[in-house]
Each structure stands twice: as C-alpha cells, then as structure tokens.
Amino acid sequence: MRKLLAGILSFYKIGIERSILRELNTYGERKQYIADRLIGLTEKRLSSLPLFVSDGLKFYAKALLKSYGQRKMFSPTGKRGRPRKPKVLPSSDLMYAKIIKQRENGRLKKVTKEIVFGKVTEAQLISTSLIERLNLTLRQDNNRISRKTIGFSKKIEKLDAQMSLYFCNYNFCRAHRSLRHHNEDGVIEVNCPAKEYGLINHNWSLRELLTYPYHITATY
Q: Do the bridges between strand 51-54 and strand 95-104 make them parallel or antiparallel, or are there none, so unpaired?
C-alpha cells in the first residue's frame, strides 16, 4: 500500500479570497484524467472565469478545453476528400498561462512565462508563488502529505477526511497574522479567514468546530 500511495499526489484547486481556502480535493497520479476531474470540480464552483496559472504540466490545457472550450464546425467546401473535422477552441474569456522552470543539476536556471489561452495584460499576475508557499505551509503542518514521511495515510478516504478537517481548522479556527486589525478599543485582534470573510463573529475553538450542528443549518 505504501508503494501505491507513493505515486499518488494530492491536487488542490484553492481560491484565495481574504485568505479563506476553498478546498477541492482530488487525488491521483499526474495524468490527464486527474486534471480533467480537478478542472471539472472547479467549473461547478465558479461564477466567473479567473486567470488560470499552473506549472508546465501539459494536461491542464486539454482539461480546460474540455470544460470551457467551444466546438467549431466547418462548412463543407464542395471539394473532393474528407470534410474537415470539428475543432475545440477556447472561449473568448478563458485565460490560462504556465510557469515553466528549467533546472540543471538540481539548480533553477530559467523561469519562462507562457500564455496559452487568452490575453493577459499584467504579466505579474502570472505567478505560482502564492500557491507554492501555501503548499509549503500544508506540508509543514500536515505530516500526511510531507515528503519522505512514515505518517502517510493508508487509505485515500482517510486522507480526504483529514484534509477536510485541516482546511476547516485553517479557515474557522486558526488566527492569521496577515489578518490583524485594531478593534474599537485600540487592541489588535487577529482574525481567522472565516471571521475576516464575515461567516462567523469570532475565531472558533476546535470544540466549536467539531460540535457545530451542521445537520440543522440551512445551506442556501
């Protein structure tokens, strides 16, 4: 089982708004069907198209076309031969760029920004530094997804449950120094992302998180 899970990666599509994490978990090898699943989950939760930025993995472009592409049909020409096959083109509002890193002998030599779909007017927006820093935070906090660890999950279901609990704690309980404010008395308060976003009125304790009556709460 350990050898099996060693080849499995965790993919997270995380939207950062006021530091709150929107968790979309999917697990598997770095293959096309996993990229398709991840982008498909993202599509169901977006009200508008953002700028998509990824590393140089080739599977994301095809996955984005499956979710946001438009099928273009070609009219018959009247000439002999087979008709031209339909082509899937990106929608006009789809923007996707890649960060391609070139290394030699384990050292970073060059970073290239490549625009794949759409027009990105601000080059500084093409960056993966925020998500890479967040990945470091996740690996430092969570032994199950650390590299070279003996604390790995033996079952995907257990890993998914643990990651869901981690993200809930991150959003509702954990105070973030970047979310510091002075209250009416001039005292510095440090909010958790959910409080900053207005979902709750105070930073929850872990007991409050685990005992909250979700089953009787309206979900509209």
A: parallel
Number of residues in the chain: 220
Q: What is the pTM of this model?
A: 0.72
8 A C-beta contact, residue 18 and residue 48: no
Q: How far apart are CA 15 and CA 160, in angstroms?
A: 18
> What is the chain's pLDDT, residue by residue, as a tens digit (220 residues)?
333 333 344 444 444 454 566 666 677 778 898 889 888 888 887 778 888 998 888 899 999 999 999 888 888 877 888 888 888 889 888 999 999 888 888 888 898 899 999 988 788 888 888 888 888 888 888 888 887 888 888 888 888 888 888 888 988 999 988 888 888 888 898 999 889 888 899 999 999 999 988 776 655 5
128 CA to centre of own chain: 11
Closest CA to 139 of 28, 3, 5, 12: 12
Q: Within a 10 A sphere around the Cβ of 172, how many other Cβ atoms? A: 21
> Which amino acid is residue 124, in one-letter code?
Q
List the beta bridge partners of residue 182: 188
Residue bearing tokens 């060059």: 110
131 within 8 A of 54, measured Cβ to Cβ: no
Query: Residue 9's closest CA among 130, 138, 101?
Result: 138
Asked if 35 and 59 touch (Cβ cutoff 8 Å), the reply is: yes
Token digits of residue 31 = 């293959």
> Nearest Cα to 133, choosing from 36, 19, 18?
19
